[in-house]
Write a structure and sequence with these properties.
With 321 residues, the chain is α/β, with parallel strands linked by helices. Helices cover 42% and strands 14% of the residues. The chain has a six-stranded parallel beta sheet, sandwiched between helices. A four-stranded mixed beta sheet has the order 1-4-2-3, with helices on both faces. Helix 7 runs parallel beside helix 8 and helix 7 runs parallel beside helix 12. The longest helix has 27 residues. The N and C termini lie far apart (108 Å). 30% of the residues are buried.
């Protein structure tokens, strides 16, 4: 009977090499986990994919977004400080920068964090004609509320000077708002009005937002670039615009003709109705013309700020080509 042959030197060398490779692989795996906080590169990759998938589901509304309990409790316990009629708090980098660059702004005090001061590229505070206070972002939360996105800067100012309709005699395009109440909508409308070179945004004193931090933040600097005129009686104001040579066109979903076919002349004031209710009956009767925005899709109505942007675009093309 033949005896099994004993393994040769090559067998032991191959086995030793495999053991060495296995030891090196284990060592590298241990080190990679230590270097990434106990997670391998593969684990980190899959964790990123899971987070991205979860964020996409939240955006689609398939799973709820977790609430920030700390900020929610701060918001519940916060009370707005009393503000005088001649006192306006502006906040946000773009808003404050535009206000600082506006020579008509009467500035009371600038409160700014060190980081925000660098981003605003402020000069030496001693050279500025108004006091500058260095604060923490949490200090601004106490004044503006924990929900305000102030970016570490707040500007206390006086309201802008009151403007009169007669000052608009050289303008060719105006935007009139009939009791649009939401400051976010009015701020967005202001941005569009500035983008299409409108001469002013005109609104009523009642049932419309006053000059405020929310309005200015949404307008993102546009409040400093276009007159915001608040009048007592809208019908009287429309009649005054007629005397100045403006064609007043009321935007109404039931208007008799599309806006493009209604525009005429070289001076036009677009009149937009409030959210939900649209134009009031007296406003409709006072406008020289009513027009609609034709929508080719299934949705036939738009948010007032979106409708204003489209109307301004069409009117600007008519006036300026």
């Amino acid at each position: 009977m033949a005896l099994p042959s004993s393994p040769g030197a090559g067998f032991f060398m191959r086995r030793a090499k495999r053991c060495t490779l296995l030891r090196d692989m284990l060592y590298r795996g241990h080190m990679s986990k230590d270097d990434t906080g106990g997670k391998s590169a593969k684990d980190t990759h899959y964790a990123k994919l899971r987070r991205a998938h979860r964020d996409q589901r939240r955006e689609r509304g398939e799973i709820p977004t977790p609430k920030d309990d700390r900020r929610r409790k701060q918001a519940e316990g916060w009370k707005a400080p009393a503000v005088a009629p001649d006192q306006v708090y502006l906040y946000g980098l773009h808003t404050v920068r535009a206000a600082l660059d506006n020579p008509e702004r009467r500035i009371v005090k600038l409160s700014v964090s060190q980081n925000a001061a660098q981003r605003l590229e402020l000069p030496d505070p001693s050279t500025l004609p108004y006091p500058v206070e260095t604060v923490l972002p949490s200090d601004l939360d106490k004044v503006l509320g924990p929900e305000a996105i102030h970016q570490g800067v707040m500007l206390e100012t006086r309201p802008l000077p009151v403007r009169r309709l007669e000052a608009l005699k050289d303008s060719r395009l105006l935007l009139v708002l009939d009791q649009v109440t939401d400051p976010h909508n009015v701020g967005a409308i202001m941005r569009s009005a500035v983008a299409f070179n409108a001469g002013a945004v005109i609104t009523t004193q009642r049932h419309s937002p006053t000059e405020s931090g929310v309005l200015a933040k949404t307008a993102s600097g546009a409040l400093e670039l276009i007159p915001y005129i608040q009048i007592t009686n809208l019908s009287d104001a429309l009649e005054e615009l007629h005397k100045l040579g403006f064609l007043t066109v009321g935007l109404d979903s039931e208007g008799p003709a599309p806006l493009e076919g209604t525009l005429s002349g070289q001076r036009i004031a677009l009149v937009m109705g409030s959210e939900g209710k649209g134009l009031r009956q007296k406003t409709r009767a006072t406008c020289k013309a009513l027009a609609r925005l034709d929508m080719p899709g299934a949705i036939k109505s738009l948010n007032v700020s979106n409708a204003a942007a489209i109307a301004l675009y069409a009117t600007h093309r008519h006036l300026f080509g």
